[in-house]
């Protein structure tokens, strides 16, 4: 089984991916959070920093595009080729209302004809290998059957399925029956994504879907960066390893000179998930969320790491 780090906008930045890759069991693939095509020549400074090969050395990185316009996809693909990217992922899963209302992400799943036309155009003109990350429908799981028929017409590099519909956001249980339908019908490589938070969760997916070649993990890794090691039979991450990981992330964000408030914002977002690895520390975690200065943040983080369970 291959394992991929899911793209999480605002969290799995190039800094996060690099520090994770150096500190824990490396992933087989990493994905950028979605890039929205724009008309500027080249990429913005922020996008460039995400994509530059020197910032992603030693990792298999797949850029992700969010759009419903074939010409925008192809233009962005061309810009990505300049940086050497030959594999690109299409986002058909984003549940955010602002994205869905524009018919993008999981919003595109409701426009079957438009989606088919879009895929026909990009697959007839692309020079890259294209994978899709999809939900099973916008409104109802029953939409998935027709979506699979559409996807089945194109030579997908792989199909990554997050078996929820848009209105689930990240709640409710992933619908494994829908994933099973794909496992039976699709001939392209399939990747499962959704709610893998323990070694047992990963084993259950592997056991139930023996033909599936990859699993993508998001929140489970942010909460427990040692999870892939555990899945591969290693010990849980030690407090020392977590501390080293945290300190490198913190240092690297500080070195970007983005302002203390932004560094705090980035670190607090990670703690929303990482906090789960610190049972009994609820009061300290609340103080992390409330910290408005770096010195205060550092003091509470020290207390968290020193806390004896
Ligand atoms: C904060 C956040 C940001 C996300 N950003 C993206 C994104 O940019 N592109 C994408 O395809 N999915 C995005 N996702 C969805 C995740 O990639 C993944 O599909 C989802 O979290 C389910 O997997 P998990 O249960 O392993 O976390 C995001 C999810 C969260 C919670």
UniProtKB/TrEMBL annotation:
Superkingdom, taxonomy of origin: Bacteria
Its Enzyme Commission number(s) read: 1.3.1.-
The active site of this protein is located at 94 (proton donor)
Query: Per the entry, which co-factors are needed?
Result: FMN
Which keywords does this chain's UniProt record carry?
A: Flavoprotein, FMN, NADP, Nucleotide-binding, Oxidoreductase, tRNA processing
Pfam families of this UniProt entry? Dus (PF01207)
Which InterPro entries does its entry note? Aldolase_TIM, DUS-like_FMN-bd, DUS_fam, tRNA_hU_synthase_CS
Q: Where is the DUS-like FMN-binding domain?
A: 5-267
Q: GO terms for molecular function, please?
A: flavin adenine dinucleotide binding; RNA binding; tRNA dihydrouridine synthase activity
Q: Give binding positions for FMN.
A: 64, 133, 162, 218-219
State the family it belongs to. Answer: Belongs to the dus family.
Q: What is the stated purpose of this protein?
A: Catalyzes the synthesis of 5,6-dihydrouridine (D), a modified base found in the D-loop of most tRNAs, via the reduction of the C5-C6 double bond in target uridines.
Q: What is this protein called?
A: tRNA-dihydrouridine synthase
Report the source organism: Sporofaciens musculi
């Amino acid at each position: 089984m291959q394992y991929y780090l899911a793209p999480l906008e605002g969290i799995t930045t190039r800094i996060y991916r690099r520090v994770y890759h150096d500190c824990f069991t490396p992933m087989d693939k990493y994905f950028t959070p979605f890039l929205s095509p724009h008309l500027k020549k080249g990429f913005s400074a922020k996008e460039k920093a995400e994509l530059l090969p020197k910032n992603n050395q030693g990792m298999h990185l797949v850029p992700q595009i969010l759009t419903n316009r074939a010409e925008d996809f192809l233009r962005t693909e061309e810009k990505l080729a300049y940086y050497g990217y030959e594999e690109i992922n299409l986002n058909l899963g984003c549940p955010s209302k602002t994205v869905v209302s524009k018919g993008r992400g999981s919003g595109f799943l409701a426009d079957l004809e438009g989606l088919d036309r879009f895929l026909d155009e990009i697959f007839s003109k692309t020079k890259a290998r294209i994978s899709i990350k999809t939900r099973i429908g916008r409104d109802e799981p029953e939409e998935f059957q027709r979506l699979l028929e559409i996807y089945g017409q194109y030579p997908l590099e792989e199909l990554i399925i997050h078996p929820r519909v848009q209105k689930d956001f990240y709640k409710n249980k992933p619908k494994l029956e829908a994933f099973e339908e794909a496992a039976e019908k699709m001939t392209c490589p399939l990747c499962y994504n959704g709610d893998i938070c323990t070694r047992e969760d990963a084993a259950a997916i592997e056991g139930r879907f023996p033909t599936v070649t990859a699993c993508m993990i998001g929140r489970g890794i942010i909460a427990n960066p040692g999870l892939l090691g555990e899945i591969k039979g290693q010990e849980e991450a030690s407090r020392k390893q977590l501390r080293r990981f945290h300190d490198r992330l913190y240092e690297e964000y500080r070195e970007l000179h983005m302002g203390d408030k932004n560094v705090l914002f980035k670190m607090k977002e990670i703690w929303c998930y990482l906090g789960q690895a610190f049972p009994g520390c609820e009061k300290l975690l609340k103080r992390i969320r409330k910290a408005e200065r770096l010195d205060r943040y550092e003091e509470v983080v020290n207390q968290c790491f020193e806390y004896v369970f």
